[in-house]
């Protein structure tokens, strides 16, 4: 199979879909790999690293889309990229279709077979290709939130860890999964007073057993949420419904009970955001104010630490990429129900139920295609 990796073109996205290590793995297995020139530079991989691995360098993204049997990326294809996709081609990347009707329609129109990293599952019920980026985003959330809390950025002027004689900031993390756990650990490590909200009693027992000396847990009821946002200096939205639009956990009206200059960090923005007032931002213009509350809603947070994020993502995606390359998408998905869960579109058909429900579109059972 010919595997192609274009340079990411989303605003300030420095990650790359294939590492030289992944390229070497594919070439060793008899596949051809083509990389757009400069694709890996933002993550610290120059063209020579890929040619040393046996890949070929091509001069333009159009060469990738024209030649590749499978296109491997990081972020969802942008409009100019979607126009170049075609039936019979495989797209393997993050998609986040539920809040993105335009992208969904374009992928269906192209006929491409699109497999989304964020909906591939594992036997434990986890999301193995989302997990490494969730870990990165979770660890970044208190870091960027503390920056947004600075007075010059519109925040309250509160130091996350306080100082002797001055109380630390109150940080509320909504969601105790992968993102939320890493966010809580880092915020607590920075000295903040941290509370994590979750609805799973089993998850809260786990967090309490392992991290009770670092942060507190509360049940994620509406009453508890309203009580805690009233005193929070920072709220991290870390709720995920796999493949579906994120639930709206704080309304615009409820911003009125928060302290002026407090910060919302919406890590769920790729799935539409979990605050009513969230809208996607970029690394070069990351924050905005609504009713005196600072919002940080960068849609590709891990792109800020591109090398760490690229290597972590590559470690997770490579086995699945190789299964698709070695077997073809149909057999690979037929052999592995967890990879089949990643199938979102095929030949003009929507194959992920949660996306169909979010967008009011018809969908088919992916198992019927394999």
Summarize the structure in short.
This protein is α/β, with parallel strands linked by helices. It has helices at 20-28, 47-52, 61-67, 79-82, 101-110, 131-148, 178-189, 201-211, 222-229, 306-327, 329-335, 337-340, 353-359; strands at residues 2-5, 32-36, 56-58, 70-72, 90-93, 113-116, 170-174, 193-198, 216-219, 234-237, 263-266, 287-290, 293-296, 343-346, 349-350.
Task: Give your account of this protein's structure.
By secondary structure, the chain is α/β, with parallel strands linked by helices. It folds into two domains: 2-120 and 307-369, Rossmann fold, CATH 3.40.50; 131-299, 3-Layer(aba) Sandwich (Rossmann fold), CATH 3.40.50.720. The chain has 13 helices and 15 strands. The protein has helices at residues 20-28, 47-52, 61-67, 79-82, 101-110, 131-148, 178-189, 201-211, 222-229, 306-327, 329-335, 337-340, 353-359; strands spanning 2-5, 32-36, 56-58, 70-72, 90-93, 113-116, 170-174, 193-198, 216-219, 234-237, 263-266, 287-290, 293-296, 343-346, 349-350. Strands 3-2-1-4-5-6-14-15 form an eight-stranded mixed sheet, with helices on both faces. A seven-stranded mixed sheet has the order 9-8-7-10-11-13-12, sandwiched between helices. β5, α5 and β6 (113-116) form a beta-alpha-beta unit. The chain starts with a strand and ends in an 11-residue tail after the last helix.
What structural keywords apply?
370 residues; Rossmann fold; 15 strands; 13 helices; alpha/beta; 7-stranded mixed beta sheet; 8-stranded mixed beta sheet
């Amino acid at each position: 199979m010919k595997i192609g990796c274009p340079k990411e073109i989303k605003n300030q996205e420095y990650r790359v879909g294939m590492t030289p290590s992944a390229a070497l793995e594919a070439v060793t297995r008899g596949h051809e790999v083509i990389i757009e020139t400069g694709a890996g530079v933002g993550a610290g991989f120059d063209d020579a690293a890929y040619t040393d691995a046996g890949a070929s360098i091509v001069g333009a993204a159009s060469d990738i889309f024209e030649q590749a049997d499978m296109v491997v990326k990081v972020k969802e294809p942008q409009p100019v990229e979607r126009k170049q996709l075609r039936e019979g081609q495989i797209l393997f990347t993050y998609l986040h279709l539920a809040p993105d009707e335009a992208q969904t329609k374009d992928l269906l129109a192209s006929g491409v077979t699109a497999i989304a990293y964020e909906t591939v599952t594992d036997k434990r019920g986890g999301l193995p290709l989302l997990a490494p980026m969730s870990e990165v985003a979770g660890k970044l959330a208190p870091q960027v939130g503390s920056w947004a809390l600075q007075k010059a950025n519109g925040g309250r002027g509160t130091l996350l860890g306080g100082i002797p004689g001055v109380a630390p900031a109150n940080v509320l993390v909504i969601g105790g999964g992968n993102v939320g756990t890493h966010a809580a650990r880092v915020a607590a490590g920075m000295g903040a007073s941290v509370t994590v909200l979750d609805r799973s009693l089993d998850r809260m027992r786990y967090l309490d057993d392992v991290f009770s000396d670092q942060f507190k847990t509360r049940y994620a009821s509406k009453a508890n949420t309203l009580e805690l946002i009233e005193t929070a200096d920072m709220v991290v939205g870390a709720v995920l419904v796999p493949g579906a639009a994120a639930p709206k956990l704080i309304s615009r009206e409820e911003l009125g009970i928060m302290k002026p200059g407090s910060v919302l960090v919406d890590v769920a923005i790729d799935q539409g955001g979990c605050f009513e007032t969230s809208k996607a931002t970029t690394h070069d213009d990351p924050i905005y104010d609504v009713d005196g509350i600072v919002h940080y809603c960068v849609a590709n947070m891990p792109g800020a630490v591109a090398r760490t994020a690229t290597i972590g993502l590559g470690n997770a995606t490579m086995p699945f990429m190789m299964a698709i390359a070695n077997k073809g998408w149909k057999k690979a998905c037929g052999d592995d129900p967890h990879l089949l869960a990643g199938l979102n579109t095929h030949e003009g058909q929507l194959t992920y139920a949660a996306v169909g429900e979010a967008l009011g579109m018809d969908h088919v059972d992916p198992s019927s295609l394999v």
